[in-house]
TrEMBL record:
Origin: domain of life: Bacteria
Residue ranges annotated for the Glycosyl-hydrolase 97 N-terminal domain, each copy included: 24-290
Name by which UniProt lists this protein: Glycoside hydrolase family 97 protein
Gene Ontology terms, MF aspect: carbohydrate binding; hydrolase activity, acting on glycosyl bonds
Keyword Calcium in annotation: yes
Cofactor: Ca(2+)
Source organism of this protein record: Panacibacter ginsenosidivorans
InterPro entries tied to this protein: Aldolase_TIM (IPR013785), GH (IPR017853), GH-type_carb-bd (IPR014718), GH97_C (IPR029483), GH97_catalytic (IPR019563), GH97_N (IPR029486), Glyco_hydro_b (IPR013780), Glycosyl_hydrolase_97 (IPR052720)
Start and end residues of each Glycosyl-hydrolase 97 catalytic domain: 315-460
Length: 656
């Protein structure tokens, strides 16, 4: 009799599990998530009644006996509609951010819950747990299965010798091919951008990453990707060299140990019907935890110089250029003249292993006093491992020099221990009222909303690669706004003033050039989201072209509004941004020359004085060729712009 009763109860549970189907739609009813609770938790994503993601899978394993999908018995469901506005403390692309979504929380009887959100421009879900004691997460399942024929732009990790695949600087080119051609040996960091046969784009990434490893995607040789995570590091060793760093030599059989009651990172799918909708999709920011810094008035976005990429190869100067006091005074004067806010003192100002072992050719007190006199801030490069060791004393020293912005470099991981390093360093910098930028880093993934003093991050194959490779092509530059930029601000470091065509280009350390026109280098200051843009060009060249540098120096780095007037992934983009009463419009193209029309109907009534910098008539042969002109424009006008191969343009509009 007991056995019969037990079998009867099991049958009831089975009926309950297999009969559960739930649905959630976006506020405009055009995106729908259908959730199925059977032996697994699966979901489909429909866009305009067309299937985009089919049979996606969600699970989390804490032990052999404890995992989310074990007897999916629903305890309760809860829905809510939110229609609010987020006021961005640091407006990366817009100041007032509508936050409108529908949410469904499914709470299970096994102490797990899954929260779904549907927006008009994307879908997200996160797992939550409610255990009294701390937990060990063995693994998480995040399977994204797309309709047949889908393709993807994916940054596949190049595995390093003697290190596992989870060691990466998050700087790769984007491979574009069918999803089913990515194998289980292909590991990709996110965002990864997919496109269906009818050209709907779905970008996969995450948000609100905290006390947990970042999500990579792994190929399946099928129509989808599977989330994968770096196991927890048990043992590390220091790899010596010019820039020492820690690498993992032994990993655990789990990915995280963490609090038993918590929310885990959002798994995010950004959705766009047109390519031009993607670069302004700030869903990752909206999903992040609200700011931990109530008063952010001490955070000052702006523009900075950097000398490392050009190897301080100055000319027309009366001193020996290098890491010395005279050189940095020259950079301070340059920044002052052209409206930049600060200079970076990059690697070499101190011993990489000791921030207090200062280069003997530098007098930091003299430099600090000179910078203060000129109204220019000093910014300092640091090695991550060294900053971690000397954090408290180093921050105090930086404060004494008037430093309000530092870079830390060579991290190259995103396991749980490393993710917690980012938070600990950023919190310490916030207490010291210092902004920080991470290089050799994973993308922000919403962290810049929670801690706005983490003003930007690298996580992009940018200008520096011109010094030793031919990777930063104009086509690559035209992929970035639709991929990497979706996860938050990026430090590309544009502004190279030595420019060549791809046929003329050579990677030369000490005489670095770009494979783009001069105007594409200028346009990236507007096209790419970055509240603290870094100019990497040679100031000696810049001083010879004051009109160009004055235009570059006038470009803001935070924006009230952003509009993408036209775009195609990997081909071109035209971006219009408003700051106060001024507009800046910029565009870049791949290796194809283009004639573009830019309607100005987004302008308010009245006359605008336009400063136009565009590719010169010979820019197809001499990529340094450009022309600057001024004219008066109104909202009734349309710009006609010719872009040379690898070209660009920038227009500054001031209301009269």
């Amino acid at each position: 009799m007991k056995r019969i009763i037990l079998l009867f109860l099991i049958s009831l549970i089975t009926i309950e599990v297999f009969s559960q189907e739930l649905s959630l739609s976006s506020p405009d009813q055009k995106i729908t998530v259908n959730i199925s609770l059977s032996s697994q938790l699966n979901y489909d994503v429909m866009v305009d009644s067309n299937m985009m993601i089919s049979n996606g899978t969600i699970d989390m394993q804490l032990s052999k006996e404890i995992f989310l999908s074990y007897i999916l018995s629903v305890k309760s469901t809860k829905t809510k509609n939110v229609n609010e506005t987020i006021i961005a403390q640091i407006p990366v692309s817009r100041k007032n951010i509508p936050d409108h979504y529908n949410e469904l929380t499914i709470t299970f009887k096994n102490n797990f819950a899954v929260i779904f959100r549907a927006y008009n421009d994307g879908v997200a879900y996160r797992i939550a747990t409610n255990f009294k004691d701390s937990i060990t997460v063995v693994n998480e399942t995040a399977a994204f299965n797309f309709v047949n024929g889908a393709h993807a732009y994916a940054p596949v990790v190049t595995k390093r010798p003697d290190e596992d695949v989870f060691h990466t600087s998050f700087e790769e080119l984007y491979t574009h091919k069918s999803i089913d051609s990515f194998s289980a040996n292909d590991y990709m960091f996110t965002p990864v951008l997919t496109e269906t046969a009818d050209n709907i784009k779905v970008a996969i990434t995450e948000s609100d990453l905290d006390d947990y490893p970042g999500m990579f995607l792994q190929g399946t040789a099928g129509n989808g990707f599977s989330g994968t995570f770096a196991p927890y590091p048990l043992e590390e060793k220091v790899v010596e060299g010019d820039y020492p760093q820690k690498v993992v030599t032994k990993r655990a059989d789990y990915i995280a140990k963490t609090k038993g009651t918590r929310n885990f990172p959002w798994r995010v799918m950004l959705i766009a019907r047109e390519d031009k909708e993607l670069p302004t999709n700030d869903l990752v920011y909206r999903l992040a935890s609200p700011t931990k810094i109530e008063n952010a008035s001490w955070i000052h976005p702006g523009k900075c110089t950097d000398e490392w990429i050009i190897d301080i190869n100055l000319f027309n100067v009366p001193f020996k250029s290098g890491i010395n006091t005279a050189t940095y005074k020259y950079y301070i004067d340059f920044a002052k003249r052209f409206g930049l806010d600060r200079i970076m003192m990059d690697a070499g100002w101190s011993n990489t292993k000791d921030l207090f072992d200062i280069n003997p050719h530098l007098n930091m007190d003299t430099l600090a006093a000179f910078a203060q006199q000129q109204g220019i801030k000093l910014s300092m490069w640091t090695l991550a491992m060294t900053l971690d060791k000397q954090l408290d004393s180093a921050l105090k020293q930086f404060q004494q020099w008037g430093v309000d912005f530092i870079m830390t470099d060579f991290i190259d991981r995103d396991d749980q221990k490393t993710v917690n390093f980012y938070k600990r360093i950023t919190e310490a910098c916030a207490k010291a009222h210092i902004m920080i930028m991470f290089h050799g880093a994973y993308p922000p993934k919403g962290f810049n909303r929670t801690y706005p003093n983490n003003i930007t991050r690298e996580a992009v194959l940018g200008s520096e690669y011109n010094a030793w490779s031919d990777k930063p092509t104009s086509s690559h530059n035209c992929i970035i706004p639709f991929t990497r930029m979706l996860a938050g601000p990026l430090d590309y470091e544009p502004g190279l003033l030595d420019n060549a065509t791809p046929q003329q280009f050579k990677p030369i350390w000490g005489k670095v050039m770009s494979q783009t026109t001069r105007c594409q280098q200028l346009a990236m200051f507007v096209v790419y989201d970055n509240p603290l843009q870094i100019f990497s060009g040679n100031p000696s060249q810049g001083l010879m072209e004051p009109a160009f540098m004055q235009l570059l120096g006038s470009v803001p780095t935070t924006w009230d509004t952003t509009i993408i007037t036209d775009a195609r992934v990997g081909a071109y983009i035209i971006t219009a941004r408003k700051h106060g009463n001024s507009w800046f419009i910029a565009g870049i193209t791949d290796t194809t020359a283009r004639d573009l029309t830019v309607p100005l109907s987004f302008l308010s009534a009245g006359n605008y004085t336009a400063t136009i910098c565009k590719d010169g008539i010979n820019a197809n042969r001499n990529a340094m060729d450009y022309a600057i002109e001024e004219k008066t424009l109104t909202a009734n006008d349309a710009l006609q712009i010719h872009l040379a191969p690898g070209g660009g343009f920038l227009v500054g509009l001031k209301k009269e």
